[in-house]
Structure formats: structure tokens, C-alpha cells
């Protein structure tokens, strides 16, 4: 029985080692919910993401090309995640409350080496124009 103890210890370590290494190799989960601030000082708040990946929120831009007073604007979007531990891709639309334009964003949520969550996005803004002849200057 004394000889079995070292064998059982080695066996249990051999079984536990792959489990521990698997836990370390999973990427940290990035959560969209919360308040985000970009490099220009614009901020957005994303409410809870439902089981379908849909979310609502608000966007308060720090910059505008219109002469209108900046107001908080509603946003709605969705995220795609293949599993709980992935770094989610997402998209959302902001319907500006103070101008005749809409902006769509698409991006991905990352967790950097220090554990900080970062959103990387691209955006496209569409402004209202009066005729199809002016379409070229609307986007």
C-alpha cells in the first residue's frame, strides 16, 4: 500500500496537468456591457446583451461636423460570439439625435496582455441629401 501512494500522486498530477494548461490557454472573455470612452472623448454606454446577442445603449459624441448642439443619441446593435471565451465581434447603429445622419460601427472586443478590454472599430456615416445627384457627398 505504501508503494501505491506515490503512483496515485503521479497519476493524479498527470490527469490534472492537461486541465490546468487548458484553462491558461483560453483567451479572456471581453464583455461589451458598460461605459466606453474613445481617444477623442466620445463615450457610449452599452446595456445588457441579451441571449440573442442584441443590445441597446447611448452614444455621446465629442465631435461633430454639424453646427447643432451635441446631444446623447440612441444606439442599437448585436454581437456575435462563437463561445463564452471568445473576443466578440459586434456591430451597432447610432441614430444621431441632433443631425440628419446615421452612423454604423463594426468591430471586435479584445483583452490586451494587461487584461484591459479594448474595442477596435470602423465606422461609416451617412448624411441626408436632397437628391440622388448629391449621393456622392452623403457618405
Structural account:
Pfam families: Avidin (PF01382). Forms a strong non-covalent specific complex with biotin. Residues 1-21 form the signal peptide. Homotetramer. It contains one helix and seven strands, in the order αβββββββ. With 139 residues, the chain is α+β, with helices and mostly antiparallel strands. It has a seven-stranded antiparallel sheet with strand order 1-2-3-4-5-6-7, with no helix packed on it. Strand 4 and strand 5 form a beta hairpin. The longest helix is centred in the N-terminal third of the chain and has 22 residues, at 4-25. The termini are far apart.
Task: Describe the structure in brief.
This is Avidin. The chain has one helix spanning 4-25, and strands spanning 34-37, 43-46, 54-60, 73-80, 89-95, 101-111, 117-127.
- How many beta strands in the DSSP annotation? 7
Highest CATH level, the class: Mainly Beta
Structural class based on helices, strands and sheet pairing: alpha+beta
Q: What's the tally of helices?
A: 1
Largest sheet: 7 strands, antiparallel
List low-confidence stretches: 6-17, 19-23
Distance between the termini: 78 Å
Helices and strands, in N-to-C order?
HEEEEEEE
What oligomeric state is this? Answer: single chain
Looking at the structure, the CATH topology is Lipocalin
Architecture per CATH nomenclature, i.e. the level-2 architecture: Beta Barrel
Amino acid at each position: 500500500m505504501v508503494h501505491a501512494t506515490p503512483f496515485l500522486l503521479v497519476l493524479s498530477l498527470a490527469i490534472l496537468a492537461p486541465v490546468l494548461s487548458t484553462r491558461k490557454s483560453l483567451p479572456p472573455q471581453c464583455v461589451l456591457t458598460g461605459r466606453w470612452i474613445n481617444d477623442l472623448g466620445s463615450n457610449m454606454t452599452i446595456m445588457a446583451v441579451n441571449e440573442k446577442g442584441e443590445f441597446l445603449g447611448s452614444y455621446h459624441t465629442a465631435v461633430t461636423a454639424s453646427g447643432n448642439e451635441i446631444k446623447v443619441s440612441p444606439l442599437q446593435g448585436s454581437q456575435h460570439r462563437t463561445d463564452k471565451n471568445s473576443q466578440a465581434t459586434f456591430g451597432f447603429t447610432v441614430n444621431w439625435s441632433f443631425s440628419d445622419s446615421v452612423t454604423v460601427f463594426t468591430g471586435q472586443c479584445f483583452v490586451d496582455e494587461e487584461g484591459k478590454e479594448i474595442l477596435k472599430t470602423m465606422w461609416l456615416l451617412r448624411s441626408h441629401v436632397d437628391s440622388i445627384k448629391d449621393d456622392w457627398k452623403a457618405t
